[in-house]
Every structure is written in C-alpha cells, then in structure tokens.
Amino acid sequence: MSDLTPQSDAPTPTTDKITQAARETIYLCNFRVSVDGEWLCLRELNDISLTPDPEPAHEDPKDPIAIERLNLMNMAKLSIKGLIESALNLGRTLDSDYAPLQQFFVVMEHCLKHGLKTKKTFLGQNKSFWGPLELVEKLTPEAGEITASVKDLPGLKTPIGRGRAWLRLALMQKKLSDYMKTLINRKDLLSEFYEANALMMEEEGAVIAGLLVGLNVIDANLCMKGEDLDSQVGVIDFSMYLKDGGPTSKSTEGDGQITAILDQKNYVEELNRHLSASVNNLQAKVDALEKSNTKLTEELAVANNRIITLQEDVERVKEESSQLLESTCKVSKSDGSANGQVLGEARKQIKEETRLRLDVEKELEVQIGMKQEMELSMKMLEKDVCEKQNALLALRQQLDDLRILNQELSHKLQTSDGAMKQKNEITSRLDDTANQMAGTIKQLELSTLIACSRSA
Asked: The whole model's pTM is what?
C-alpha cells in the first residue's frame, strides 16, 4: 500500500508512485482519499506533494470543481461495483437495510447535488435535486408512474425525501440508467437547476449513467412507508472501501499496516468531526424553525384576538342599527297623521309607475317572443338551405359519376367498333381465300378428268 506511506523529507524510490496516486485523489477536509484499484486509501495533505520537484510558478493549480467531479465519479464506480458483487454473492433480493445499497443511494445523492443552484425560500437557502428528477416525467412518459407514486407517499414532506424515494423506485423498476441518460442528454433543461461545471452537465455524468446499466442484474424490494427519508443524513462511509493493510513498496509489511491504521484512524476522527459539525448545523436549523414556529403561533393568536374583536364590533353595530330602526318607526308613526296626504300621492305615483313598468315588460316579452320566432324561422331556413345544398352536391356528384360512366361506355363502344371492323376485314379476307381455294379445286378436278380421258 504505497499510497498510505507519508512522504519523507528525503526522496525515496516510491516518490513517482505517490505522485501518480496523488493526482487521482478525493479531497475530504485535510485528507485525500486516493483510488487504488477497488479500494480507497487515505493520506494527509501535508505529508505528500503532487510532484517530486517544485512546479514552475507560472502553472495554475488543478481546478477543484473538476477534482470533485472526478472524485464523485470514482466513488460511484466503487459503489456500483461493490453493490453488484456483494448482491450476486448474496444471491437474494436486496432490502432497505442492506449497507452497500444504502451507500449507493448516498453516493447518487451527492452526485445529483453537485453544482445545484441555490434557491432562496422564506426559511433560507435550499438545494434539492427533486426538481431535475421531475423533468424525467416530461421527457419519458413511462416515468410518470414513479413520480405519481412518490407524490402519493404519505410520509414524505420535503423535496429531498421525494428525491430519495424516486431513486429507490427507479432502481426497483430497473430503469435508473435509462432515466439518467435521458436527463443528461437534455442539458438545456438541466441548466435551469445546475451550474455549468456541475457533474450532471459534464461527461462524468454520462459515465455514471453508463455504469448504472450494471444494476439491472440485481433485484431490490424496498419498503418506504415506514422509512424516514426526509431526515436521513447522507454521509459517504469511506470505511467500506478502505484497505485493511498490505505490504508497502520498498518497506516492510508491518510498517505498511501501522501506516494504514494511523491514516484510517485520522480519517475516522475527521469524519466524526465532520458529522458533529453537520449535527450542529442541523440543530441550529431546528432551533431557527422552532423560533419561527413560535413567532407564527403568536401571530396566529393575535389574529384570533383581532377576529374576536371584529365580531364583537359587528354585533354591537347590529344592535345599534336595530335600536335606530325602532326609534325611526316610532317617529314615523307619530308624524303619520301630518304626512298622510303626501304618502297617498306617493302611493298613487308608485302604482302608476308600476303599471307603466308592467306594460313595458309585457311589450318586451312580446318583442322577445317575436325575436325568438324569427330566430327559429331563420334556423329552419338555414337548415333547409343546408339540406338543399347537400342535395345539390349529391346531384352534382351523381352527374359527374354519370359523365364518367358515359365516357367509359363511349370508349368501350369505340373499342368494340374497331374490333368489329377488324373482324369484318378478316372475314372478308377468309371469304376471298375460300373462293380462290374453291376455284383452284375445280381446276384441279377438271385437269384430273382430262388426264384420265387421255390415258383411256
């Protein structure tokens, strides 16, 4: 395990190998996890250098985004290969508790999250790969069943939970590779969700989609109803792919094992620190959500109190209106005798206006009836015209058919006349030939008789 040996101050024969391995490493905090065949190896950044000699000052360092894409692609290779081999050795249907399968989904989640554009919401910034996965339904109609099933699951409340459920259903359907290829081929749509240098926008995404074809040989039966997909922490467990030990190049086996154990111990400690930081961040988010929930609860209580106050004001206004109406009625009764004549004239005027309005309404009803009758007659005329036009078209069609038939008969008649003339000519020729043959026979008979008489 030459990748696990730290570089000493003096140059060693293994410098070139360490340099080559360091160019293909996965950056994780203060460590590099290098890909060595089917395993990963750890080494501290301060203990190695990328070249045996100092590089020229004018050369730029390697693009960290490109390194991230390469690291994720290498992790996907190891995860998919390990999952296929372990599943074939297991020889049964995989379930949700199978550790290599869980790690595969974690790696896929990291690949889909790489380079996602941040969307701002009222709770803060949000990055979710559920949006790109929803595009598959538009590009491939058969994926609509998976999307509908995910949306119908009762326990999913967040977009990331729906995205995780979608990946599991696509794997069970053995269509994950096809869906990913379809999605990667439409970079014009993915640009809405990903940065230009994201994994899904580069060739590493196409490589991962091709590797997913191998997962069609395994069978999985995943139950998601009781699984909490919303609150899972997606951390890659590199310990599944780390070397347990082995001989180092130009060193003893014991030194290589000690170096490997120390490097893996440092990695586990760093991973534990990373997980602790993630837990603290999640706890801070939970506290912020609790504060916002408390604030919303207070605002709701204030709104309820305001509603109750408004209802009381409405009841009070109703009571005042009823009291005012009663007082108005009493005043009108007291002044009734004085204003009796005015009320009588007003009533007569109202009756006259009512009668005029009724007359106008009757006239309007008559006009409406006449209009309806005219519309009905117009419709009947239109229908009659349409029927006559259809009949005329049918007659024209029949006339055209008769003309075509007449032309055909004329053509046949001309053809038959020509054939008849040819037959008559042939008959006359045959008659002439028969007459000539009859004359020839008679001459032969006459000459025969003359010859017989002469011989006698």
From this structure: 0.45
